[in-house]
Design goal:
323 residues, Rossmann fold, six-stranded parallel sheet, two-stranded antiparallel sheet, 11 helices
Amino acid sequence: MAKVEKRGALSAEQLREFFREMLLIRRFEERVEERFRAGELPGFLHVAIGQEAVAVGVCRALEEGDVMASTHRAHGHTLALGTHPNEVMAELYGKLEGCSHGYGGSMHLYDIERGNLGANAVVGGGLPAVVGAALAFKLREEPRVALAFFGDGATNIGTFHESLNLAQVWQVPAVFVCEMNHWAESTPVAQHAPIDDFTKRALAYDMASAQVDGQDVEAVHAAAVEALDHARGGNGPFFLVCETYRLTGHYVGDPQVYRPKGEQQELRETQDPLTKLRQRLELSDGDVEELEREVGELVDASVQFAQNGTDPKPEDALKNVYA
């Protein structure tokens, strides 16, 4: 995982690297969606187009030894944490060369070597695991932090509250990152939550919290650094709310009949984190074309790698099954 300076404002060079990473995630997911619609990928597919700034801003703040648990919308987190596009794409194709050796697919991306404890098809499923990992770090007196991603809908389930409660009682080095994209699948936030300020979710546990513009990668990164420093410094867990926007449906093929007409297009025009960062960096058309060419080659190569990958043997289907 590439490291950045942890103090002070990010340089233009660092922000350009963040832009490249966000662009890679965007083009990777667009290609994945294309291949899925062509019938090449099995299972369900959930992309995080529009939420790239959260993935990059948070994951680039993690340090060596830290761990992360993702959600069913995990491609961006996995790429931002350093897993090569070839390994992610191969996993989506169900190949042995995939990061989960073909067992997981889109909703179960693991990369333990890089600190990725795994994506999870169970809403909020990563939170208890992160509390356990953080408790282990505390008992071993290791300066490591465990971080969980989840959506605003997950804040309504029991394991969310149990996890935050135990994390605070035990004062473990955990960071809880809520990707508040305003939709719990197809239910708008106003219909599933009685609050507008999601930092209030942490009030019942007297937990430190903050909210940040999830479309501003620099702001996300700064907030994530603060949260991680808080937890690593022995001050207990931290709850970070990143207000972001899902510029697609809940899943690929979602008709989105629940969404107001024209909302998606309006958000793409006003809330795209890539457009915002490009404007801040004042990147020229030539600069963007160069980056597009670079990430395009990476994505093309990943598809070729996956298509040429090794299919698992049918007799190995029950390997690693313990129940």
